[in-house]
Amino acid sequence: MRKLIALSACIFGAGAVAACTTTDPYTGAPVRNNTATGAIAGALGGAALGYLTNTNRSEQGRKNAMIGAGVGALAGAAVGNYMDRQQAELRRQLAGTGVDVNRQGDNIVLNMPGDVTFAVDRADIQPRFFPVLEDVARTLNAYPQTMVDVVGHADSTGAADYNQRLSERRAASVADFLISRQVMRDRLYVAGRGEDQPIASNATAEGRAQNRRVEIILRPLTG
């Protein structure tokens, strides 16, 4: 059964934000310290995660929460145009990062390979990937009429129940990061699919590397 994760937002005080800054070595300007801020977000957000079923948090419930927060639903030709613009922005932002941006109808799928996002057998995001997720969060905040599914996957190495839990933890880490960058938590569903949905053969090292991934699926909010 698909497991969904309900997310609790991370709230940072002014002191915590100030502690998470550093100096850009090229410009001398103060900038956010992604490593420190990401570590705080993971510690606070991950501790608050819990698993729910579809009955507790339905698709319609998510739509209602977004509309209740003042996010208007899309309709008709506006849907395709809206997703076209979002796709173009993501392709521009993520060019050369190793993240694939694919279109499936009105949906956009971001495929984040595990070897880029995580170390082997780990669920904490590699610091070098923080800027990539910063760009994703920035685009999501610019396109608020998009629902966001964060889905973790694993290869078939090891026990299936372990792979399931690892895929859930990795998806949760990505979702925590997005929430810490002000992405509205009611937009998010988070799930782990374990080893059940491979996109390549698990018989080869190359195939297993493709199967270890987190996908972010962007779907338009429609009435």
Structure description:
By secondary structure, this protein is of the alpha+beta class. It has one domain (3-220): OmpA-like domain (60s Ribosomal Protein L30, Chain: A, 2-Layer Sandwich). It is 42% helix and 21% strand. The protein contains eight helices and nine strands. The chain has helices spanning 14-19, 34-47, 59-68, 77-94, 114-117, 130-142, 160-180, 205-211, and strands spanning 3-6, 21-23, 30-32, 50-52, 100-104, 107-113, 146-153, 188-192, 213-220. The protein has a seven-stranded mixed beta sheet with strand order 4-1-8-7-9-6-5. It has a two-stranded antiparallel sheet with strand order 2-3. β7 (146-153), α7 (160-180) and β8 (188-192) form a beta-alpha-beta unit. α2 (34-47) crosses α7 and α6 crosses α7 (160-180). The longest helix has 21 residues, at 160-180. Mean pLDDT is 78; it is low at 1-56.
